Amino acid sequence: MTDLFSDAAAQRLPVSAPLASRMRPAHLEDFVGQEQVVGSGTALALAIAEDRVGSSIFYGPPGSGKTTLAHIIAESSGAVFEEHSAVSASVADVRAVLQRARERLGAEGRRTILFLDEIHRFNKAQQDALLPAVEQGLVTLIGATTENPYFEVNSALLSRCQVYVLEPLTGADLAVIIERGSAELETTLSDELVGLLSQKAGGDARTALNILELASRTARADGTAVTERHVEDAARKRPLVYDKGGDRHYDFSSAFIKSMRGSDPDAALYYLAAMLESGEDPRFLARRMVIFASEDIGNADPRALQVAVAAAHALEHVGLPEARLNLAQATIYLARAPKSNAVIRAIEAALADVRTHGAIRPPKFLRDAHYLGAKRLGHGTDYVYPHSDPAGFDIDYLPEELRGRTYYEPSGKGEEA
């Protein structure tokens, strides 16, 4: 009875499955986008055609084609394809797969491809369990992840896999997918609606097809063709892909800092807005701005530090969403301020001498002389008080071993001119 119901479910699944699942291509020639990975003549395209794909990790945002590529490899390969989600698979599940792969190879001479979706969710023990089998070639591992594998996958396992980076799909790629989907649904879309759907999808093919399917169903219930209203109603999910502790956190914060450093207030504001809208910790942003004020502006505009600190204080007193104004004001100021890295170069040069020579004691004339007996030790003797004698401004105060060193070299910009 169980087999009977399972067979019936398998027959009905293609009809009841979501459009994105029904539209998944089975052959590489039907795959849309990612030309840099599977375009004509690429290493992976040739490997798929020749059935010699090695252990690989597909890294990219949702809806970029990671799982689809794994299924295409399965369809084109003579190997047995075993699919698991790292969210639910255990070490025991992995060992069972490896045992079956060993028996299959010995009895039938057939290889095994193990596809692990969300491989970054595997802990160290689970990843380590895969190492010997991958190294020996017992299984061909194909992992899919939305997280940077260089952060999330053990280096030992990573070194045994080829990493392929998939990018968000372009508007042109999404247009092709949407038009195929509309043909499947027997729905006609104008070029404007295709463009709107592409925009709402945010580079995600699955999202594009889900929006299309829901908009089409809503339009049919209304007895009309699909309109902009139907698309807007179906696309309530924002096309934001962000992780506060992972790859995109570092990418966006890096872009934010570099845009301010390059004096581009518009780009800096965009990255600030993207991070705030995606739920980034605003205190993290305020801290980075305070650091930036000294690291990249310094004394070229000393007020920059005051502005950054004021924005950080305002954030604590006001909170979001209003504090976005304080952060935006500070971002604009920091981006437009004259730039100098003289401060960081100065402290780094001084630290280098400390690490090389140690903490050399100050000359005796600079040492503390407030206690009895200090003068007998020569401490404070011959000190020239600059307010009484301007000659004190011309003395080299460094330890004798470092006399003549120059750490702070003004940039000649802004107030350092």
Give the tally of β-strands: 5
Number of domains: 4
Order of helices and strands: HHHHEHEHEHEHHEHHHHHHHHHH
**Average pLDDT figure:** 85
Quickly name the level 1 CATH class of the largest domain.
Answer: Alpha Beta
Low-confidence stretches: none
Between the first and last Cα atoms, what is the distance in angstroms? 87 Å
The geometry reads as elongated
> CATH topology of the largest domain, anyone?
Rossmann fold
Looking at the overall shape, the CATH architecture of the largest domain is 3-Layer(aba) Sandwich
Describe the structure in brief.
This protein has 417 residues and is an alpha/beta fold. It has 19 helices and 5 strands.
Chart the SSEs and their pairings.
Layout lengths: L1 H15 L2 H4 L12 H4 L4 H7 L6 E4 L6 H11 L3 E6 L5 H17 L4 E6 L6 H13 L3 E6 L3 H4 L2 H4 L3 E4 L5 H14 L6 H11 L3 H18 L5 H7 L12 H15 L3 H13 L4 H16 L5 H16 L4 H14 L5 H16 L60
Parallel strand pairs: 1-4, 1-5, 2-3, 3-4
Q: How would you describe the overall organization of this protein?
A:
It is a single chain. This protein is an alpha/beta fold and 417 residues long. It has four domains: 34-165, P-loop containing nucleotide triphosphate hydrolases (Rossmann fold); 171-234, Orthogonal Bundle (Helicase, Ruva Protein, domain 3); 247-336, Zinc Finger, Delta Prime, domain 3 (Up-down Bundle), CATH 1.20.272.10; 353-416, no CATH class. The protein is 53% helix and 6% strand. It has 19 helices and five strands. The chain has a five-stranded parallel β-sheet. β2, α6 and β3 form a beta-alpha-beta unit. α14 (247-261) runs antiparallel to α15. The longest helix has 18 residues, at 205-222. It is elongated and about 95 Å long. It starts with a helix and ends in a 60-residue tail after the last helix. The model has no long low-confidence stretch (mean pLDDT 85).
